[in-house]
UniProtKB/TrEMBL annotation, chains A, D:
<dbReference type="InterPro" id="IPR037171">
    <property type="entry name" value="NagB/RpiA_transferase-like"/>
</dbReference>
<dbReference type="Pfam" id="PF01144">
    <property type="entry name" value="CoA_trans"/>
</dbReference>
<dbReference type="InterPro" id="IPR004165">
    <property type="entry name" value="CoA_trans_fam_I"/>
</dbReference>
<dbReference type="InterPro" id="IPR012791">
    <property type="entry name" value="3-oxoacid_CoA-transf_B"/>
</dbReference>
<keyword id="KW-0808">Transferase</keyword>
<comment type="similarity">
    <text>Belongs to the 3-oxoacid CoA-transferase subunit B family.</text>
</comment>
<protein>
    <submittedName>
        <fullName>3-oxoacid CoA-transferase subunit B</fullName>
    </submittedName>
</protein>
TrEMBL record, chains B, C:
<dbReference type="InterPro" id="IPR012792">
    <property type="entry name" value="3-oxoacid_CoA-transf_A"/>
</dbReference>
<keyword id="KW-0808">Transferase</keyword>
<dbReference type="InterPro" id="IPR004163">
    <property type="entry name" value="CoA_transf_BS"/>
</dbReference>
<dbReference type="InterPro" id="IPR037171">
    <property type="entry name" value="NagB/RpiA_transferase-like"/>
</dbReference>
<dbReference type="InterPro" id="IPR004165">
    <property type="entry name" value="CoA_trans_fam_I"/>
</dbReference>
<protein>
    <submittedName>
        <fullName>3-oxoacid CoA-transferase subunit A</fullName>
    </submittedName>
</protein>
<dbReference type="Pfam" id="PF01144">
    <property type="entry name" value="CoA_trans"/>
</dbReference>
<comment type="similarity">
    <text>Belongs to the 3-oxoacid CoA-transferase subunit A family.</text>
</comment>
Length: 212, 253, 253, 212
């Protein structure tokens, strides 16, 4: 019987690994859930690439400020100590490696740490990359947060990505509903298997050789 | 006396010819120079190349310009949004050209144009299809692709307040692409809520010095501000809440 | 709680080892982190590489660090000044290495380090002896030379006011190299006149966001300010005027 | 008899060619004199590369602000409408061609518009370049302001610079005590000869073929 933790549990688990004082960018979508589990008594500074450090929670619906959005274009607030800056400065901050942690979603992560998360390569799809490629290379630690398997049961951890790449050799760690994997020079290492999950089980699910 | 003030948005955009490359500030709707875009729609110039982070929302602003068949090509990072149906339709029909640029490369290429940099090596996008054909070089053990500046004939930018020398301050995340686009265009036109007396803007806090600005147009306060203070009562698109007053009264209790 | 405040300058520079590369802000004396430099002199680290626009003035600050034989190499744009006798003597004696960099290339190379740019093509210096040996390329009809980032282990910067998150604002032209150096060093130490409560600095006007800053030290008000307001009474080096009060009284009449 | 105007007259003559609304950088030394002759009833915005647009005159000696200096490290003032910025932004402003006019001194200017003004190449000299090379390429129009001849009577206008270069093909116009010269693709053109000076005289003094 495999153990799968919920998305909320996964967000909480990621949050546990973010120490106080970290500068963190949470990618659009599932990674934004992590914000809800950052301990309220600790100061962790959130960056949004559209020009804000010190982002706070969503405002009350009557207090929505159209000039104060996150990267997903959702209304947010600013904390005391926040700072605004323009796009070149904001992406310089990322590209220059000043963020401690970036949490991203993924379609696939390869053993080499390659990330595919921006395009399924579908012929009819409207292409859009946004800040994905900058985020992928834009933090000291790049954490991916994802289900281990797709809805049709295929592993998102792969020997080589088949989807178009977002970044090469950029992922540090993968948080999945089954286990946490570190990306090491020699491939994936199971850092923490949830519940009764074993390295053997995870190897079977992913079809990869995994170190324990 | 230097006075870059222009009477209205129509006057400000009057000189934009067909075939121009135009940078349009904004990240989603935040910082989008809505009044200038409306004036451009009215003005009629076509065969345009637009440089902007997104490709329009809903049926207004940039989306309306696109819908009017006025845009030949768009250079942007994220055309696809929940409400980008106008772009989506044109793109699928092959009626608009797209140059997709990772957001940070877009920002840095615009900055490079403004700062006189001939080209630069960026680590973003290396090994991806968006770097296909670009010169790749290993520097200090890391791979970089060579990226070139992006210039424009015109930049349309939205600031909070300006003065007659063209100094501009912005508001919150509506700052986004405005300050760099202002540096990268032959002619930079900025809409602001209102004009300040020369010297009234704090010289330590001016984000865009007037040297980058050719024209400033006051378009009136955004609806979520009153006397410069935030009063809320709108959604993220700036549309009035259905019953803002009632809801707010409830919160107060 | 994040608190980057450090008790005093000595504590702030305590961890700087021999052989470090250190960026030192300032343009002439304006924005020179005088108290941090004094603490570094006291601290004793040697074999240093200094990156700074100038190479010291008079016999204090950077000049005193040089005079103490603590600096192996200096990367700067303008070592020669009317009062740079310490550097001049060491240079003539072959006791200090000099990398001379045009000021704008110095600034842009520092920015490039902070912004993750691998290298960039600059038009400055092309065809001069300061570009000798550099890769030259023609782009769009103009010649550019390839310039690489300049990093440092430490940056010593002088701001006006900071908060415990490390957000910094500057004062007038004392801003100069501070904001870019803060981005290009492994460890950035900023001296400020005084600390503000978190949230008291205007988020629209913060020049260096705290992400770039590791330590902030309050060193007390510069002598030409009282309660944050300019009161004069010093010369351009910050030295008290011989008879400032009397002169000022005369002016008042 | 050759006509030579004074340095003050030369500064005034340069100032005449700077239209209202111009953004101007006046190099260290003689070019700073131009500021004294800019018409008081016109707005011309001075840039100093250490981070200020809207520079004003020197302050009274009791009002010297050590945080408010020009590129020559002399105390200045700020005008209403001034703006401060950091060094990368300031030199980006220059390199990006946003200044209308830059006025510089010179040791030599060549027919090709090459400028030499930062080093005499002396073996014992302490080298120092500052912003000279950035200024040389950093404006829409680069004006040189100089005596035509050195103290020993040699022409500063030359067929090719013998001193180390500051910038290649960057000078637009040369204002000298004898005449004003434009730099054109085919060499120097006498734009304005002062007093009774003739093109023939100037050609004799410079040893160059000059167009009138």
């Amino acid at each position: 019987m495999t153990t799968r933790i919920t998305r909320a549990q996964l967000a909480a688990r990621v949050a546990m690994d973010i120490p106080e004082g970290s500068y963190v960018n949470l990618g659009i979508g599932v990674p934004t859930l992590v914000a809800d589990y950052l301990p309220a008594d600790q100061e962790i500074i959130l960056h949004t690439e559209n020009g804000l450090l010190g982002m706070g929670a969503a405002p009350h619906e009557t207090q929505v400020d159209p000039d104060l959005l996150n990267a997903g274009k959702q209304p947010v607030t600013e904390l005391p100590g926040a700072a605004f800056f323009h796009h070149a400065d904001s992406f310089g901050m990322m590209r220059g490696g000043h963020l401690d942690v970036c949490v991203l979603g993924a379609f696939q992560v390869s053993q080499a740490g390659d990330l595919a998360n921006w395009s399924t390569g579908g012929a009819d799809a409207i292409p859009a990359v946004g800040g994905a490629m900058d985020l992928a290379i834009g933090a000291k630690a790049v954490y991916v947060m994802t289900d281990l398997l797709t809805k049709s049961g295929e592993s998102k951890l792969v020997s080589a990505c088949t989807y178009p790449l977002t970044g090469m050799a950029c992922v540090t760690r993968v948080y999945t509903d089954h286990a946490i994997f570190d990306v090491r020079p020699d491939g994936f290492v199971v850092r923490e298997a949830f519940g009764d999950n074993t390295v053997a089980l995870l190897a079977a699910l992913t079809g990869l050789e995994l170190k324990g | 006396m230097i006075d870059k003030t222009v009477a209205d948005a129509a006057t400000a955009v009057a000189g934009i010819p067909d075939g121009s490359t135009i940078m349009v500030g904004g990240f989603g709707r935040a910082g989008q120079p809505a009044e200038l875009i409306d004036a451009l729609i009215e003005q009629g110039a076509g065969d345009l190349t637009i440089v902007s982070n997104n490709a329009g929302n809903g049926d207004t602003g940039l989306a309306a310009l696109l819908a009017g068949g006025r845009v030949r090509k768009i250079v942007c990072s994220f055309p696809r949004q929940h409400d980008s149906w106008v772009f989506d339709r044109l793109y699928r029909a092959g009626r608009i050209e797209l140059e997709l640029v990772p957001q940070g490369n877009l920002a840095e290429r615009i900055r490079a144009a403004g700062a006189g940099i001939g080209a630069f090596f960026s680590p973003t996008g290396v090994g991806t299809e968006l770097s296909a054909g670009k010169e790749v070089r290993e520097i200090d053990g890391r791979l970089y692709a060579l990226e070139y500046p992006i210039w424009a004939d015109f930049a349309l930018v939205s600031g909070l307040r300006g003065d007659r020398w063209g100094n501009i301050v912005y508001r919150k995340t509506a700052r986004n692409f405005g300050p760099i686009m202002a540096t990268a265009a032959q002619t930079t036109i900025v809409q602001v809520d209102d004009m300040a007396t020369l010297g009234a803007l704090d010289p330590e806090s001016i984000v865009t010095p007037g040297i980058f600005v050719d024209a400033v147009v006051a378009v009136g306060s955004r609806s979520w501000l009153r006397d410069g203070a935030f009063v809320g009562g709108v959604d993220a698109d700036g549309m009035p809440l259905p019953d803002a007053a009632a809801t707010r009264a409830e919160v107060d209790r």
